[in-house]
Amino acid sequence: MTLSNLLWLFTVAAGPVLLGLAIAYGIAHQRKLTNVEQKQSDEATRELFEANDGKSADENGQVEPTRHPS
C-alpha cells in the first residue's frame, strides 16, 4: 500500500471517529436545567403560546394573522 493510500485511509477512517467522539462529548457534557430554570422556560413558552392565540410560528418566528370571515 502506498503512502497516499494510507493517508487517504486514515482520513476516511479518522473523520467519522472524530465526529463520533465530538458528538459523544457534547451529549455527555450537556447541562440539565435546574427545576427553577425548567419552570421559567415552561412559563415563558406558555406565555408566548398564549400571546399568539395558540398558533405556531413559521421558521422566521412569524405568526400568520387571524383571518375572520367577512
From TrEMBL:
Residues 36-70 are annotated as: Disordered. It comes from the Bacteria. Residues 39-58 have a biased composition (Basic and acidic residues). Keywords: Membrane, Plasmid, Transmembrane, Transmembrane helix. The chain crosses the membrane at residues 6-28. This is Uncharacterized protein.
